[in-house]
Write a structure and sequence with these properties.
This protein has 149 residues and is α+β, with helices and mostly antiparallel strands. The protein has one domain: CBS-domain (Roll). The chain is built from five helices and five strands. The strands form two sheets. It has a three-stranded mixed sheet. A two-stranded antiparallel sheet has the order 1-2.
Length: 149
């Protein structure tokens, strides 16, 4: 079982998520190649990336170096599509929710990254456990992040 992060409670009136979420390089599209996904994820040093169609969240890539893994299994990452390897059941938060709510979701579900959407399900961005903790609360001893995501 993964260790839960021990943190102080979020400050009262914590900011809405839209103030933290950074879209960075935008969501991937289901028709993007797995090679494109792997390149973008390495450029941003992440193992999670939202997938959107018409800007609406439809999935999440949740593996490190997906192109290398696909290539290692004998498939061509140039022709493999993001839609074939993405997770479709995505946990997310709305941009108008506060950071404390998002932190609770991440803690309860053992997530290291959480996509943020508006009420029409358009991807606003994504943030990591470390980003939200740095902005909203001070870590306490033994603040190891869970390994599950």
């Amino acid at each position: 079982m993964a260790a839960k992060s021990k943190t102080r409670p979020a400050k009262a009136g914590s900011p809405p998520l839209k103030t933290l979420a950074q879209e960075n390089a935008g969501a991937l599209h289901p028709d993007d190649s797995v090679q494109t996904a792997g390149t973008r994820m390495r450029e941003h040093d992440t193992s999670k990336w939202p997938v959107a169609r018409d800007r609406k969240l439809v999935g999440m890539i949740d593996q490190k170096d997906p192109d290398w893994k696909l290539g290692g299994r004998g498939h061509d990452p140039k022709t493999g599509k993001v839609g074939q390897i993405m997770s479709k059941d995505v946990i997310f938060c709305y941009e108008d929710e506060d950071c404390a709510s998002a932190q609770r979701v991440m803690d309860e579900r053992g997530l290291s990254y959480l996509p943020v959407v508006d009420r029409e399900m358009h991807v606003v961005g994504i943030f990591s456990r470390e980003e939200i903790q740095a902005k909203t609360q001070a870590p306490v001893e033994n603040s190891a992040a869970p390994t599950a995501s």
